[in-house]
Amino acid sequence: MQGGRRGDGDGAAAGAGQLGGPPGGERAGGAAEAGGGARRGEGAGHLGAVTLPGGQVADLLGTPAGAHRWLVAHGLAPADAALRETCAERLRVLREWIRALLASRVDGRTAPADALDAVNDALTRAPAASLLLWHPDRGLHRAAAHPTTQIVEHALAALAADAADLLTGPDADRLTACGSAPCNRYLLRHGRRHWCSTRCGDRARAARAYARRTRADET
Ligand SMILES: [Zn+2]
Question: How far is ligand 1, taken at its centre, from the CA of residue 198, in Å?
């Protein structure tokens, strides 16, 4: 499943890394956006956790309602889906495995085998298949899995495909971690920019200006 290539070369794999970035926000390099929505996002590997001013982290996948909003914003779930905590948990777990793969790629380390297994498991789910079941009255019959489970597994497969495409695609060499602490997102480097968002860029510039002033005051 192709997540989100959109001709501008910057929206690669819009889904994978992002799993939960701010909908519609300031993303631009869509790299690891694990979701498939906002394909222009700047944040590559943030997958749902957003660092707020002051350093707190907001997890957009932290609750079933939050995860549902994130999936809807990324075109991965209908507005009336009823996610459960187990669904949100599955998304959070996949996010961590994708982040582990992004980290290994950025650092040039061996890809963790358990992360590969998890992404491959998500990739190979076939949500369209109706299962063979047995019931005392009906006997053998086929039926779809729980609709919400299908939605979530479809989303997991789409996000995993985005991540896999990103990690093996031509943009993989541009993957980098956001240089604006305490942000922990990944992005696709674009020229000299090495932060995931305007907000992180502003924070980095403000921190540099503050450091300069502090040094000037000391001399
Ligand atoms: Zn950032």
Answer: 8
